[in-house]
Specification:
Elements lengths: L2 H12 L2 H14 L10 H24 L1
Length: 65
């Protein structure tokens, strides 16, 4: 990591939470599009399993209230 990058990260860490959110939104807006390539069936299945588990946890947490 360059010294400039480390300095940016240190400055970011010092920001209040609201400013961090604003900064990240602006940063993402400026990034070039990312092409991660095609997903294979294994990746899609794993993501589906993770999503189903997350939804089950949320449903369980809601019912426990």
């Amino acid at each position: 990591m360059s010294a400039e990058t480390a300095e940016l990260l240190a400055s970011f860490d010092a920001l209040p939470a609201a400013e961090k959110q604003t900064f990240v939104k602006e940063l993402f807006r400026r990034l070039p599009p990312l092409d991660s390539g095609p997903l294979n069936d294994e990746d899609v299945a794993r993501a589906g399993d993770e999503l189903a588990a997350m939804l089950d946890r949320e449903e369980h947490d809601t019912q426990a209230r």
